[in-house]
Design brief:
Distance between the termini: 63 Å
Radius of gyration: 25 Å
Strand content: 15-25%
Mean pLDDT: 80
Number of domains: 3
Number of helices: 5
Length: 197
């Protein structure tokens, strides 16, 4: 539990050791690092890239990838995280879409020097099979659609058509709402509209 608390709470050792029942800070850190070393040792036995193939149905996207920032004490602009406005280290994590298994962990990287897409290009890109892509957020749009499938990508025709239809609906909806409003009728929002418009 001490190790989990250490990983979850960003605080000084004296604060953490008092939360752990008032143990000596040196004793607290000795046991925390012993368990952290054990967790690191398990990485190669638990995080296995080939696990992305479990339950594979022939999809071109088997994994989803994103980076997460972890706060650290102040280390200057090279470590500046836009998520915290403080210093941090960035880790890239990939999950198997079908099983939820963590299949890739890469890092740490300095937050200020390494955007998500650069971390992807530095290692994970080389792990992909021919014609394989990953699902990612819009921070990876630079490698869309060849290696990454992301929401803002130009090659998402069904989303593009949906957005066009939504825009058309909004343009038509506004005059219809005004007409109904002028008649004093209620419509799907359930609010009574003013007839003075």
């Amino acid at each position: 539990m001490w190790t989990l608390m250490f990983l979850k709470i960003y605080a000084r050792n004296t604060v953490l050791s008092s939360l752990a029942g008032g143990v000596d800070p040196d004793t607290y850190m000795k046991w925390v690092w012993l368990f952290l070393d054990g967790i690191v040792y398990l990485e190669c036995h638990v995080i296995i890239w080939e696990n992305q193939l479990k339950l594979d149905r022939g999809n071109d996207c088997l994994t989803s990838v994103d980076c997460t920032d972890c706060r650290i004490p102040n280390h200057g602009p090279d470590f500046a995280s836009h998520k915290f406005n403080k210093s941090g280290l960035r880790y890239e994590i990939a999950l198997c879409i079908l099983t939820g298994d963590v299949v890739w962990l890469n890092g740490p990287f300095e937050c200020g020097k390494w955007p998500d897409i650069s971390i992807f290009q530095s290692a994970l890109l080389g792990m992909l099979a021919d014609n394989e892509r990953v699902e990612a957020d819009d921070g990876y749009v630079g490698d869309h659609p060849m290696y990454i499938k992301c929401p803002a990508g130009f090659a998402n025709p069904e989303e593009t058509l949906f957005m066009r239809q939504s825009t058309s609906n909004a343009q038509l909806d506004s005059p219809i709402r005004r007409r109904l409003s002028s008649c004093g009728r209620e419509f799907e929002t359930g609010r009574k509209q003013s007839t003075s418009e």
